[in-house]
Amino acid sequence: MKKVITYGTFDLFHEGHYKLLQRAKELGDYLIVGVTTEHFDEARGKVNVVDSIMDRIENVRRTGFADEIIIEDHDGQKIEDIQKYGADIFTVGSDWVGTFDYLKQFCEVVYLERTPDISSTMIRKSKFKIINVGIVGTGRIVPRFIAEAKYVSGINIRCTYNPELKEKYAFGNRHDLPNYSDSYEEFLEQVDAVYIASPNETHYEYAKKALEHGKNVLCEKPAGFTRAEAEQLYSYARENNRVLMEAVKTAYCPGFGQLLNVAKSGKIGEIRDVEACFTRLANKESRERTDASYGGSFLEFSSYTLLPAIKLLGNDYKSVHFDILYDETGVDVYTKVSLKYDNATALAKNGVAVKSEGQLVIAGTNGYILAPSPWWLTRRFEVHYEDPGKVEVYEPIFQGEGFRYEISDFVSKINGIDRHGYKLTAEEAIAMAGITEEFMKEKNKEERTHNNVAG
Ligand code: C2G
Question: Which helix (DSSP H) or strand (DSSP E) does residue 405 occupy?
């Protein structure tokens, strides 16, 4: 008798799960299915699991393919189970190609082709729907996004849109996504939501069209270059009852939320200054270093570096001032943004050709919070006081690259679980767009002066 073993969360049970179990059963005579516990999913970084373990087991049972159902609750259990049950074949979907090769020492490992295009949902009673997402643009960030989306329950990445790509969008050997190059409308028809990761200057139009077509939008920053554009987009979203979220990853990281709460708790007294720095030496050929109009350090990093100030000091800054260093092609390679509030100040430093310490310091009347690099993922922060010997250390949970948290919030918002969007409100996003507008004006002004001098 040939024994096959497979594992999964099987949340929001769907066609992909059904077909996987069916083919797993066909590989042998006896199928063992391991269903993950909530605790194990949490530990392996899977967020957003909706159905309870009892429901997930019941859904697997009702397929009729499992001869035995077991619980998976810890790392290393797969090896134990293979030995304990004498499994001949371990199988899992092709989204995991390579990951489980280490099991080849114990049994045969088969990666079954994943079901693309999940459309219908089966057997489940849950009130949540799988959200089909289309990706606009196929740049560097996209494979990272797709890899992280795997850890978010209830989302299926269905297709891409890139007018310059005629083929399918392929990366690694795990996925081939159909690409729509001829018509954005046709692409929009395939999906419930879009993730916009195209060049900066195209975000606004893509987001606007998607919202007009009733789609939910997760948009890389900046969604617009002016306050008016941002206001427009958020009001479209509100009128159409759709979700619009700017992909400011930090805002959705659990540690950053905790840091804000500690800062607001009164521990460090009244907050008087927020200083954040984010630099990365970008490749000289990269878009950030070559596109004088829409590249540069401000557009690359300021949505991160301004975020703590906006979250802690508010949207009503009294004045904004920019100190900008340009390279010979007119790209802003280092930009400092100073904000003045009634009773506080803030500084946001951004660099694509200048390297500095990427830290966040929140200064108060009683002490300060220091979040070391990479504070934008907020894996660690410390509270310091006048007495240098007294330091409180926080090490919040953070898994993977952090995209999973923003994707998870996006899915929750679409499902109506969190419509408030307190992690990054429309008002905050609009205030940040206002600063972008001021920056673009300043840059154009300086460019003109520079040209005059040069001429
Ligand atoms: N699957 C599939 N097609 C889909 C979606 C999922 O074939 N469209 C497969 C997965 O590859 C997996 C199984 O269905 O083999 C269960 O998927 P999930 O519930 O997402 O569980 P997963 O996170 O893949 O857990 O220890 C757990 C295992 O590592 C896999």
Answer: helix 403-414
Q: What CA–CA distances, in Å, run from 96 to 101, 173, 381?
A: 10, 10, 34
DSSP state of 435: H
Sign of the C-alpha dihedral computed for residues 220, 222, 224 and 227 taken in this order: positive
Rg (CA), the chain: 24
Please determine, for residue 42, whether its predicted confidence score (pLDDT) is greater than 90: no
* Cβ pair 63, 42 in contact under 8 A: no
Of 300 and 46, more confident:
300
Q: Give pLDDT, residue 455.
A: 32
Task: Write the pLDDT tens digit of every residue in 401-428.
Answer: 889 999 999 998 998 876 667 899 999 9
DSSP 97-153: TTTTGGGGGTSEEEEEPPP-S---B-S---SPPPEEEEEE--STHHHHHHHHHTTBT
Task: Identify the residue whose tokens are 């708790």.
Answer: 265
> Tokens representing 97?
């190609």
Please report where in the chains the tokens 């159905």 appear, as a residue. 51
- CB atoms inside a 10 Å sphere around CB 342: 9
pLDDT value at 71 more than 70? yes
Element (H, E) at 82: helix 77-85
Indicate whether this model's pTM tops 0.85. no
Closest CA to 244 of 259, 258, 264, 230: 230
Please state the separation of Cα 139 from the chain's center in Å: 15
95 lines ligand 1 (CB under 6 A): yes
Mutate which of 60, 73, 95, 132 for ligand 1 pocket (most atoms within 8 A of beta carbon): 95
pLDDT value of position 95: 86
- Bridge partners (DSSP) of residue 223 are none
- Contact between residue 300 and residue 288 where contact means Cβ atoms under 8 Å apart: yes
Task: Point out the ligand 1 atom lying closest to the alpha carbon of residue 20.
Answer: 7
Cα–Cα distance between 262 and 192 in angstroms, integer? 37
3-state SS class at 258: helix
Confirm or reject: Cβ of 303 under 6 Å from ligand 1. no
The arithmetic mean of pLDDT across residues 15-27, rounded, is: 96
State in Å: Cα 114 to ligand 1 middle.
8
End-to-end CA distance of the chain: 85
With bands split at pLDDT 50, 70 and 90, how would you rate the model's confidence at 203?
A: very high
70: confidence class by pLDDT, cuts 50, 70, 90: very high
Two structure tokens written together for 1: 């008798």
